[in-house]
Design a protein that fits this description.
The chain is built from 24 helices and 28 strands. With 668 residues, the protein is an alpha+beta fold. Strands 5-17-15-14 form a 4-stranded mixed beta sheet, covered by helices on one side. It is globular. The two termini are 37 Å apart.
Length: 668
């Protein structure tokens, strides 16, 4: 349930938007006929190809006309042989029209591609639009024993990879034994697959049945099955037939093959071929997504072609997806993307940066751009948050950053009201960076901790820390006598907020210099413990992810590389003490409690008590300095059908994932 406060600012914002004279989301639809009729001049990619409503074929299942031609010519087997015995069925609002190319922006060749990636990613279980219901997707069904220590997985018989290879439990065992549990490939097992640090165990029953066992109760694993995407990273299973030749266990010449391909070792080569992230380069690797990577052009734009073996049909038996192809089109920045949205070159957007400050301009151009701009709910902890690297190598800065009074002072120094008015038109919800507002054990004191704008209190705390002003009273001095000059690193999306924050910090004598960087470089510096201070979003803190990821981004050592505040402690935990630096007892205990929380059911009597205790300690430490949370802007072309008009757009639920990009289609 939304908080009253959240409803209030969202309603006020919507009312203000109506004053702009928003247009409807309809438009002239080209005439189409069912059962193989064609639409006149489709324009999904700006071309003039014909589109077909419903599929073609004489059997129980129908397919895209383009795919049917390949069947007729003998290049593909019939659809009944390509689909599993029991396909996943999606009830669509409208039977779609086949064809067209959907274009989404990409802010780089290897990052910032959510507006295409989020429409094709796949999980074992689908999170439905109500954000609470799970339905089987990549699997046929599953069972959970009484104490949540054993999950029985039933695969879809006859389901295939995009190259036609069958998917069986062999692919699951390959991923588990030869990828997840291979320390050369996976030095540390992600905690999603563990209970209190102990990994799960796969047990093959037959070709289409598998048991996943845990040493202790793990009720949150059902959420993991709905969250961990096979379409972004290889999770749960991987194409054994295709990948084996790069694995030393299956090919004694794997090292030689790696050298021939330009890699220093078979491990690096294998990791490159199994990579299914936005940086993926292998255009031959099979997948289970509705569109699979087909080609990358010389500019880094990526093209994803229809998967003829995709396992999903609509209620009339038409194989999805309706749209033929995706293109991730590289744009320089948000302003270039805005121009392409208005010109109709890009069909939808929700990926960052998409600031509320652009709302008026985009709203006024709805008719020109033939799109509709919506406001969706936001479950971020803070749109922009700041953290200090408490394991920085510089001992002077480390002493300062580990002083909680310093962090509290830096929080009090921010005029969030002015920042909100300037950046969010006053429609943001001012709060500290913590769990999402609708977390069941959230308390107002956590959201409001140290967020009042109080320069006197900030200065008093800094004085108490012993950070005296220089002789000209322009900047404070660090304990070593040098003037403060902290470098704050961030990327384009968070630069406006960071720039304002620097001004407020400079006013209390803490000079902070802003460096805006390209995202991959920014992430690399974080991984290498090189950033002094960082600004990024505090997302992935909705209760779904708190449960499934052992408190997710808020867990010590898991602020992700974009907001990580203790990289050396993270290295120590990840390496079981072999690398990095041993954390203090209180931080280590907090992390252990987060891991214990991840094993609990929401019905457990201790669930809320432990969750509240964790949030209290995170609040007391003031590791994360938040600003505000604004509505999420979502823009969708009027030419697209079966698209959402309301909902929640957040990483907690995979952004676009609940809105089934495989069911979208071009109406004209």
């Amino acid at each position: 349930m939304k908080s009253r406060k959240s409803k209030r600012w969202l309603s006020a914002f919507l009312a203000a938007c109506l004053m702009l004279g928003a247009v409807g989301c309809g438009g002239p639809t080209a005439p189409v006929s069912s059962g193989g009729g064609t639409a006149s001049t489709a324009s999904g990619s700006g071309g003039g190809e014909d589109l077909v409503r419903g599929g073609v074929g004489d059997g129980k299942y129908k397919e895209s006309p383009a795919v049917h031609e390949l069947v007729e010519s003998g290049e593909l087997p019939p659809i009944e042989e390509r689909l599993p015995e029991e396909p996943a069925v999606v009830e669509v609002d409208e039977i779609g029209v086949y064809g067209g190319t959907y274009v989404g922006a990409a802010f780089g060749p290897t990052t910032g591609q959510v507006d295409t990636e989020g429409l094709r990613t796949q999980t074992l279980l689908t999170v439905e639009k109500d954000l609470t219901t799970f339905t089987p997707n990549l699997i046929k069904d599953y069972e959970i024993n009484d104490d949540f220590t054993e999950y029985t997985i039933y695969l879809r018989k006859g389901m295939k990879w995009s190259n036609g290879d069958p998917i069986t439990t062999e692919d699951w065992m390959f991923w588990y034994e030869d990828v997840l549990m291979n320390k050369d490939i996976t030095p540390s097992v992600d905690l999603s697959y563990c209970v209190n640090g102990e990994p799960m165990v796969y047990e093959k029953v037959d070709d289409y049945t598998l048991k996943i066992k845990f040493p202790q109760s793990n009720p949150s694993f059902e959420v993991i099955m709905a969250k961990n995407s096979v379409g972004i990273i290889r999770s749960f299973f991987a194409p054994k037939e295709y990948l084996s030749k790069w694995h030393i266990k299956y090919n004694e010449d794997a090292e030689k093959l790696a050298k021939e391909e330009g890699y220093d070792s078979w491990v690096l080569c294998f990791q490159a071929h199994i990579d299914n992230s936005q940086s993926r380069m292998d255009t031959e690797a099979p997948d289970v997504t509705p569109w699979v990577l087909d080609r990358i052009d010389e500019n880094g734009n990526r093209f994803f072609a229809r998967n003829p073996y995709y396992h999903v049909v609509d209620q009339e038996g038409n194989q999805l997806p309706y749209i033929d192809e995706q293109e991730a089109l590289i744009v320089q920045d948000k302003d270039v993307r805005n121009l392409k949205l208005i010109s109709g070159e890009i069909h939808a957007a929700g990926e960052n940066p998409f600031p509320v400050s652009d709302y008026t301009m985009l709203k006024e151009n709805e008719e020109k751009g033939d799109y509709k701009l919506y406001l969706f709910e936001n479950t971020r902890g803070s749109d922009c948050a700041f953290t200090f690297n408490i394991t920085i190598e510089d001992e002077n800065l480390r002493e300062i950053f580990n002083n909680v009074k310093f962090r509290q002072a830096m929080s009090y120094a921010l005029d969030r009201k002015t920042m909100n008015e300037t950046l969010y038109y006053g429609k943001g919800d001012i709060r500290q960076a913590t769990a999402a507002f609708n977390t069941s054990f959230m308390k107002e004191e956590f959201e409001n901790a140290y967020i009042e704008y109080d320069v006197d209190k900030a200065n008093a705390l800094l004085d108490e820390c012993g950070y005296e002003w220089n002789s000209s009273h322009t900047v404070r001095l660090m304990p070593n006598g040098q003037e403060f000059n902290i470098v704050l690193e961030t990327i384009e999306e968070f630069a406006p907020t960071a720039e304002m924050a620097c001004e407020y910090w400079n006013a209390v004598g803490i000079k902070v210099t802003l460096n805006q960087e390209e995202r991959s470089y920014y992430l690399e510096r974080g991984q290498n413990n090189q950033r002094q201070m960082q600004a990024f979003t505090m997302d992935s803190v909705g209760e779904l992810l708190l449960r499934s990821s052992s408190f997710s981004r808020l867990r010590p050592g898991n602020a992700f590389d974009d907001l990580e505040l203790m990289p050396l402690y993270k290295d120590w935990w990840d390496s079981n003490g072999e690398d990095g630096e041993q954390p203090p007892e209180d931080i280590d205990t907090l992390r252990s409690d987060c891991l214990r929380f991840g094993t609990m059911s929401a019905e457990d009597p201790e669930y809320a008590e432990l969750g509240e205790s964790i949030l209290q300690r995170i609040s007391d430490n003031c590791w994360f300095i938040g600003t505000a949370v604004s509505p999420r802007m979502v823009l969708i072309s009027n030419r697209l059908g079966n698209t959402p008009t309301e909902g929640t757009f957040a990483n907690d639920y995979g952004f676009w994932r609940p809105y089934r990009g495989d069911t979208w289609y071009f109406k004209y």
